[in-house]
What we know:
- By secondary structure, the protein is of the alpha+beta class.
- It has one domain: GTP Cyclohydrolase I, domain 2 (2-Layer Sandwich), CATH 3.30.1130.
- It has four helices and four strands.
- A four-stranded antiparallel sheet has the order 1-2-3-4.
- The longest helix is centred in the middle third of the chain and has 13 residues.
Amino acid sequence: MTIPDGLDRIDLHGISAHGHHGLFDFEREDGQLFIADVSLGLDLGPAARDHDLTKSVDYGALAQSVHDAIVNDPVDLIETLALRIVDVCLVSQWVQWVSVTVHKPAAPIAVPFDDVTVTIERSRP
């Protein structure tokens, strides 16, 4: 994960929620734990200089929005969920770059494993 030059970073790790995402009926019915890690690239200078949160990202509100994105509106793929969370992060005009990793540690895989993740990174044009 490489943040573009000249940007500062805010990270939120381990935002977890019970969601009903997946291709299989039992995944949709029972649900499972999903965890999101979010990194935001933005210029924190204006907020820091002016002591003004409106020139940054309220990471408490963002964490709630990410949680809501996991809980609501089931999708088939965690790729789709990751992209949904990217879109949530880019709502703020201050965010110039975002990286989202979605973890699905209880994915229905027949062999032992620790975690399945999907990472999507996006920048504003």
